[in-house]
Amino acid sequence: MTLGGGGNGKKALPFYNSPSWRKTRKAVLARDHYLCQICLKRGVLEPAVIVHHIDHLKERPDKALDEDNLQSVCAVCHNRLHPEKGKQQEELKQRKARVIQARANPEII
Known about the structure:
Keywords: Endonuclease, Hydrolase, Nuclease. By secondary structure, this protein is mainly alpha-helical.
């Protein structure tokens, strides 16, 4: 089973689909009462939907299932923790051509 995250996360997919990860993820969400731990520190109650590796999976695969290395976070906080993932989407947006339809002014024709 490959644990490394690679740049696109596809290499880590088998790990995130494994029964051991699913069990650990469920335990961490329950431990954190399904609340984003980052928002909670600011006094905000926000549901957690992601379990985040504090020490990144590709850098520390030995801590992949270590509950002390995992925290429940909301999608917004997870995106802040991983700004590099948003860059891929920005690059795609920049590549798209913007099409503008031009029409002749009927008053001049």
